[in-house]
Amino acid sequence: MKFSFFHLMPWTDLPETPSQWPARNSYFNAERGKELYDSYLSTMAFAEQCGFDAVAANEHHFSPYSLMNNCNLIGAALSQRTKSIKLAMLGNLLPLLNPIRVAEEYAMLDVISGGRLVAGFVRGIPHEYIAYNIPPSESRARMKEALDLIIKAWTEPEPFGWEGEFYQHRAISIWPKPFQKPHPRILLSASNDESAEFVGQYDAMIGMTLIIDLDVAAKTIDVYRKVSRAHGRDPGPDSVLLSQQTCIADTDEEARAHMRAGLEYFHDKLMRPQQDAQRIVLQKSRFFSDEEQREFFVKRLVVHKSRSLEEQIDAGSVICGSPETVVKQIARLRKHLGAGQININMKIGTIPDHVVLRGMELFRDRVLPHVADL
Amino acid sequence: MSSHSFAERDINLPTGVLRVRSGGEGRNVVHLHSAAGPRLSPVIEMLAAHHKVHSPFAPGFDGTPVHAGVETIEDLADLVAVFIRQECGGKCDLIGESFGGWIAAWVAVKHPDLVWQVVLEAPAGLRPGGKGGLPDDPEARQRALYAVPERAPAETRSASTLMANRKATVLYGNRVAYDEALADRLATIKARTLILMGTQDTIIPAETGQLLKAHIPQSHLTYIHGAAHALEFDQPKRVGNLVIDFLDRGESFLVREKTSALT
Asked: Which CATH number is correct for A2-371, 3.50.50.60, 3.20.20.30, 3.20.20.70, 3.30.70.1290?
């Protein structure tokens, strides 16, 4: 199996729960922000010494939930602090962005890092569409067109123009082109069958997050595999990535205590304001193409939040415990879902950085040796 | 612009009678049809709001008479040149759709004095390595032609007419996938050329557009997203707005004038 180390870069010092989205930024303190970036970047670079195959980042806007509104900047910083670990951008919120800019930045990052980029493209969570003033109902169509355009920008040997529904360019010829040929490996996110079908149409890995039921997740992955096969590809375990909130400590009790505290801050303070925006988007747009997909998304969040930590572990939503316990949990995910990659997020809310670093060492010394060959 | 403003007439050329459909007012544009035969596409109607559009029927298509001595694509290009001289009285803009694009490229090569600007829409005759091509199976062929099936034009012509059109295509094209003589002379094309390719076209591969772009000195390659081979029917607004802008502004079409070309 392969493992990536993901960091959300949360703001850890919110004094109160924001009453409305977006959270007011008068809470932000620049000196503290500098400290956090320094600490988080050091932690992410440390992943290379802990046996992780990739260090991963993503993009969020207008929220203390994450201080990372452009993960490509983080990727660039990490390219200078690391030597061989892959840089997994998981990913750019494609429907919100200028696809040419994304193609250029990813190509730069791939060349600067000597071909270490994993190019993630995600549709994102609903409230981000308010932040960048993009109609949520257009998200799927924008995602497809932007992705097609980026692949063309990376691979086309001659200058070209593009005439589409959302993007029109009369001349494109990006410099640099990616280091990896024909282009960096692509990851697309999917949390439901409709998204999985979309991912299967491309030569891309599928990335899943927030699993609330292993059987439902297995079915979604199966949709991806079937569509991939219909397009002449047979994706192996290496093409399925699961993102998991994770806490590894010396004992189960210690890990669960840290995870509980971290999740409480994460859900009650960091997630709270964006849930309001999310509700408005879901009610007032067609972010999901049908009611069934919308209900599935909402239910997934509600169910997850209502569960105890033990129930979340049982459901395969989080990884938590001593190294020996975590080995069993990873083996279960591998067996049940056929997933060959796990994207581990250890900085949940206020979990202290020294606990995260200890968890990374435990992963290197007592988890990875038992799961690397699964 | 509606189709009733177009009129068909037969004109006498030295080699025989040529049918032409014309409409609109303005600078002359000659539109050369695909192997499907002459059809009044939404793009031609959009063009007629800006230009005088002439759509000559290649001899033998849609029941028209063949011309003595006109047997190859190059012969058709020479015939188009005669037509332009007689009907346009000098230089015009030239648009070719697939089979017509092949002819248009030869016109640009052999008769540079008659062409201002050229638009090549997924032109036939330049498929490197024979890649692509029209599927034999009717359903597969339809899928390869149209990414948006509901926009495919209703077929009102008889089976015998369509069969004759296919025979005419074979006669002129001689089943050539890659016209080496044309490829060798692309670099001599003087006219500014817009090359259009559908992102879902499996009949004419992307390599054809790349080849044209690489060799025609003043050229622009544009991909039409959401279009297969029948560009003018799959995405008429995208194609029509782009072609009109190119014909009106030439090289300056690179500079965007308004927020969105698609309204």
From this structure: 3.20.20.30
Distance CA(B67)–CA(B79), nearest Å, equals 9
The Cα of B64 is separated from the nearest Cα of chain A by a number of Å equal to 36
| Three-class SS state of A36 | helix
Confidence of residue B259 (pLDDT cuts 50, 70, 90): low
Q: What is the rounded end-to-end Cα distance, in angstroms, of chain B?
A: 16
- The DSSP call for residue A16 is S
pLDDT in tens, A211-226: 889 999 999 999 999 9
What CATH number is attached to the domain comprising B200? Answer: 3.40.50.1820
User: Does a structural domain hold residue B260?
Assistant: no
Most distant pair of Cα atoms in chain A: their distance: 60
Domain membership flag for residue B261: no
Taking only the tens place, the pLDDT of each residue in A289-302 is 777 777 777 777 78
Q: Which residues of B touch A163 (CB under 8 A)?
A: 222-225, 235, 238-239, 241-242, 261
Yes or no: say if B186 and B215 are a contact pair by the CB < 8 Å rule. Answer: yes
Nearest to A129 by CA among A293, A305, A286: A286
Q: Name the CA radius of gyration of chain A, rounded.
A: 20
Query: Which residue reads 């870069």 in tokens?
Result: A9
- Non-local (6+) Cβ contacts of A176 within 8 A are A107, A108, A111
- The single residue listed with the structure tokens 């995910």 is A333
The ipTM is 0.94
How far is Cα B86 from Cα B58, in angstroms, rounded to an integer? 16
Distance, in Å, from the CA atom of B155 to the CA atom of B142, rounded to the nearest integer, reads 12
- Residue B133 placed within a domain: yes
Q: Which of B196, B211, B223 to mutate to test the interface with A (most CBs of A within 10 A)?
A: B223
For B196, the closest chain A residue by CA position comes to: A161
Is residue B262 in some structural domain? no
pLDDT tens profile B169-203 = 999 999 999 999 999 999 999 999 999 999 999 99
Phi, psi of A348 (to 5 degrees): -95, 115
- Report which of B2, B193, B3 is spatially closest to residue B93, judged by C-alpha positions: B193
- The answer to whether the CB atoms of A162 and B242 lie below 8 A apart is no
Q: What is the pTM of this model?
A: 0.94
Distance between CA B7 and CA A366 in Å, rounded? 82
Confidence of residue B263 (pLDDT cuts 50, 70, 90): very low
**Rounded CA gap, A359 and B103, in Å?**
69
Please tell me whether residue A249 adopts helix, strand or coil conformation.
Answer: coil
Q: What is the DSSP letter of A303?
A: H
Domain locations in chain A? Answer: 2-371
Answer whether B225 sits within 8 Å of A170, measured CB to CB: no
**DSSP H helical ranges for B137-179:** 138-145, 159-173
Q: Which residue has the tokens 């539109």?
A: B31
The boundaries of the domain holding residue B185 are: 3-254
- How many domains is chain B built from? 1
List, for residues A26-83, the tens digit of each pLDDT value.
999 999 999 999 999 999 999 999 999 999 999 999 999 999 999 999 999 999 999 9
Phi and psi of A117, rounded to 5°?
A: -80, 135
